[in-house]
Amino acid sequence: MKALVWVLALLAVAALAAVPFTLSPVLVQFGISTLLLAVLAQGWNIIGGFTGYASFGNSVFYGLGTYGTAVAMVQFKLPFAVGLAVGAAVSVLFALVLGLPVLRLRGHYFAITTLALSEAVAAIISNLDIAGRNTGLILPLIRGDTMFYELSLGLMVLATLTVLWLSRSRFGFGLIAIREREDAAEVMGIPTTLYKVLAFGLAALFSALAGGIHAYWITFIDPASAFDISLNVRMIIMAVFGGAGTVIGPVIGAFLLSGISEVLASYVTGVASLFFGLVIVAAVLFTPRGVIDAVRRLPRRGLAYFLDAVRETRL
Amino acid sequence: MLFEARHVTKRYGGLVAVSDVSFQHREGEILGLIGPNGAGKTTLINLISGTQEPTSGALLFEGKPLRGLAPYRRAHLGIGRTFQIMKPFPGLSVLDNVTAGALFGREPERAMPPARDAAARWLAFVGLADKAQQPAEALGGPDRKRLELAKALALQPRLLLLDEVMAGLNAVEIGEVVDLIRRIRDSGTTILVIEHVVKAIRELSDRLLVLQYGQLIAEGTADEVLDDPRVIEAYLGRRRH
């Protein structure tokens, strides 16, 4: 059974890796943004799904990764790989330093504070000459969708393997205990502050790498697109839709929702977002624990699963 | 001396929850802590386990001051506690609740499989082996008490602080828990136990401390203390003549 799951996972990755060589360029571009969204959802999963801190700061990590990479490449003429590393370093450092005070807050207070962080950082960036102020930066042009696609896929696999490790390790177990009841976790010997900050940093690492890849791929960045709060909302929706706190859920969520939104956009253009909203509402009502949980338990529970879900959401 | 409190005071604004309390806790001793509701018993346990710091005074564990040490550091040193209002990890299985202690306690396991094995042994010890796979939130009251105990034991504490682990249990269940606590002591753990069930505390304790309005009003063997007129007065009020 375990071996079967691994074989299936390998086949899935191989099939995804073959996409640029077999399917249309349009699909490859769709693939890049979907894969990067999956990375972001997985990054949110680490701090939101495992640790239980609903972060709205992940889009800041993404933005800092974006700008770190762009500034390194444009202003200092550094190669892309170095740019990525700079973006990741800036972002992780930011997460560690800011995490220390911010992760003392819980629930709504944490969410609101991280939300404000995003606005603050965007404002700072728009006033930095080195970051091109309001107008943004233009990165060296490169044609290489296949490279960007495979890079994004590799990053997604790395993020998912990291989450898999979390789900089986002492560190990940500590994060889950913090999510379940932080004061009890602390008394049980778990260094809660250290663990939370590390989880924040890990989330920042993946978000920043996704931002860096996206920046070079799209070649033009500005504060509004790099620090977009709606991007943070999307990663949360994707992670929760697929199953927050699970290993593969956020990836499934990103693929399904990207697919649905793409199909809707091409067939019912005008009212696409309305339909998309309906999909989200239905998901919250019927599969509040995520698609993964539904797939796992539906065969055993049958339709009663949905009834239980509706009861659970107390509607 | 395993643990010592020296002139420990905890103030909340104008309210003095614990007032100038000093006592010593010998290795291997079961110390009972009694007193009316609101006397400061749970606050004292919070101060020892580190969820709160005393306003003044010193707490010494193996002769070293505890001030400034976070609760998790105290758990690593060997201070384990239960909560009166039980705090299981609701979404985790009974087994995994205990696994947390085995992973992060005084002599922690670094890998999951041995930690789960250790947790299973503690569950067997408290009599919850058959419920290991249930979600913790599905347990009933008495089983939750046992789980709370197993979680603390998995830390392999040297000093175990038990906050009303018998509240709400019937006579048979109380007998079982008394027996459990004795076995824990016999395996080398020093225990501080808060309890309202007088019969149980009389059977268990080597010595008793009595708190009233945050002050230590009596200290001694169970028989001495429970016959002390000040203690009777604290519980029953002054006899009118």
In summary, what is this structure?
The complex is a heterodimer of chains A (315) and B (241). Chain A is built from 15 helices and 2 strands.
Description:
- The complex is a heterodimer of chains A (315) and B (241).
- Chain A has helices at 2-22, 25-50, 58-75, 80-102, 107-125, 145-168, 170-180, 182-187, 192-218, 223-226, 229-242, 249-267, 272-286, 291-301, 304-312; strands spanning 137-138, 220-221.
- In chain A, strands 1-2 form a two-stranded antiparallel ribbon.
- By secondary structure, chain A is mainly alpha-helical.
- The longest helix of chain A has 27 residues, at 192-218.
- In chain B, strands 6-7-8-3-9-10 form a six-stranded mixed sheet, sandwiched between helices. In chain B, strands 2-1-4-5 form a four-stranded antiparallel sheet, with helices on one face.
- In chain B, helix 4 (112-126) crosses helix 5.
- The longest helix of chain B is centred in the last third of the chain and has 16 residues, at 171-186.
- Chain B is globular and about 65 Å long.
- Chain B starts with a strand and ends in a 5-residue tail after the last helix.
- Chains A and B meet through helix 7 and helix 8 of A and helix 2 and helix 3 of B.
